[in-house]
């Protein structure tokens, strides 16, 4: 579909104005928000990553593409989120300490909100103490995202901090992000891992024993 290709190319080129205009056009044409996300935005960011790996793109290119993508996600958010439902539970979500990547985390938050969870978004570069504070304030699930192999250990540090605070049994801790695996989740004692935003909603429900 031409408009999806336009969105893809605009994000790839870091052209936020064109990306936003094409997303608005796609929505006016009746293209589903999920299709815009899964067929244009996410593939564009995947290609940005490949170009970075190949040495074609550098950090500034990644950054302008990320800003274009985030502006598009902001437009899609109201459509992806169902309004007016009583929250199933509260999820405190954040990208772990040292890690500034927040696009995937934001998508997971949007999908969880759409599935009926209340979201406490702690942002990026979140130290363990902030997650602990959120749990003390009532979050039943703590959701940790990491995009760098160098920041994955902060997931373990966070889980260990929950143990030290005597709060490990009070919360479910789920993890995700491009370099994260089920094996890593098992290794560090997380309650669950999911590879993408839609399976994250299923996992969150499973962790609370809710029907999926
Ligand atoms: Co960076 N970066 N980056 N980056 N960046 C990656 C991650 C990288 C893979 C690129 C590459 O080399 N191909 C690489 C990491 C390599 C590694 O660790 N082995 C990398 C690097 C090296 C770096 C820097 C170190 C570069 C530098 O400075 N030299 C630096 C680190 C900064 C820091 O964090 N301290 C850096 C910086 C940046 C920008 C700031 C420029 C920008 C981030 C902007 C932002 O997020 N606001 C950026 C970007 C955009 C990327 C890529 C291109 C795209 C990431 C993204 O948004 N993907 C990325 C390459 C790639 O991933 N292909 C790359 C789209 C997003 C929808 O997917 O985040 O995977 P993702 O989320 C998915 C799933 O993973 C999952 O669901 C999401 C939706 O389906 N998921 C969860 C995520 N969290 C979850 C949590 C869950 C469950 C599922 O439960 C809790």
Rg estimate, integer Å = 17 Å
Give the CA-CA distance, first to last residue: 32 Å
- The CATH superfamily of the largest domain is Cobalamin-binding domain
How many alpha or pi helices?
9
Please tally the β strands and state the result: 5
What ligand species are in this complex?
Answer: CO-5-methoxybenzimidazolylcobamide
Helix content: 55-70%
Oligomer: single chain
Numbering strands along the chain, what is their spatial order in the largest sheet? 2-1-3-4-5
Query: Ranges with pLDDT <50 over ≥5 residues?
Result: none
* Sequence of secondary-structure elements: HHHHEHEHEHEHEH
Name the structural class.
alpha/beta
- CATH topology-level fold name of the largest domain: Rossmann fold
Query: Which second-level CATH architecture of the largest domain applies?
Result: 3-Layer(aba) Sandwich
What is the class of the largest domain in the CATH system? Alpha Beta
| Overall pLDDT | 92
């Amino acid at each position: 579909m031409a408009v999806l290709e336009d969105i893809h190319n605009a994000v790839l080129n870091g052209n936020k104005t064109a990306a936003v205009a094409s997303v608005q056009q796609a929505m006016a044409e009746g293209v589903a928000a999920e299709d815009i996300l899964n067929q244009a935005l996410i593939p564009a960011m995947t290609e940005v990553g490949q170009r970075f790996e190949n040495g074609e793109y550098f950090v500034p290119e990644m950054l302008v593409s990320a800003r274009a993508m985030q502006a598009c996600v902001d437009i899609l958010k109201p459509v992806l989120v169902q309004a007016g439902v009583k929250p199933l539970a509260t999820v405190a979500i954040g990208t772990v300490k040292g890690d500034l990547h927040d696009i995937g985390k934001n998508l997971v938050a949007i999908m969880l909100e759409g599935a009926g969870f209340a979201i406490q978004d702690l942002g990026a570069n979140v130290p363990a103490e902030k997650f602990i504070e959120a749990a003390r304030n009532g979050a039943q699930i703590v959701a940790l995202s990491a995009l760098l192999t160098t920041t994955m250990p902060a997931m373990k540090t966070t889980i260990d901090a929950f143990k030290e605070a005597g709060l490990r049994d009070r919360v479910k801790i789920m993890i995700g992000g491009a370099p994260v695996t089920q094996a890593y989740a098992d290794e560090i004692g997380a309650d669950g891992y999911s590879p993408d935003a839609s399976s994250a909603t299923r996992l969150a429900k499973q962790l609370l024993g809710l029907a999926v």
